[in-house]
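Hi support team,

I'm filing this because I wasn't sure whether my run with zinc ion finished correctly. The job status page said complete, but I'd like someone to confirm that the output block is well-formed before I use it downstream. Pasting the exact inputs I used:
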Amino acid sequence: MPISSELLEILACPMCKEDVELKDEEDFLLCKKCDIRYYAERFPDRTSCPKCGSDLEKIKGEVLVCVSCERWYPIIDDIPHMLPDDLRDDLK
Ligand SMILES: [Zn+2]
Ligand SMILES: [Zn+2]
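And here is everything the job wrote out:
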């Protein structure tokens, strides 16, 4: 199930409360070991996981990007992960 437009409308950036924009088919770098994904656009030179050093796998995914502060929140298994900064340091 894709994320609905109704849900998208009530979602807001937890940091600045501004709107978020849905982007699908974005490139992500996935660390299978840590189960962490990095937004490839923000980490153009990254080839290995900064946490465990494993090689990263390129995957496609959906992401919500704040129109104001440009923080990004991955959508994993149709669930938006609207985590504040202190819980998602490695996702910045
Ligand atoms: Zn890792
Ligand atoms: Zn924001």
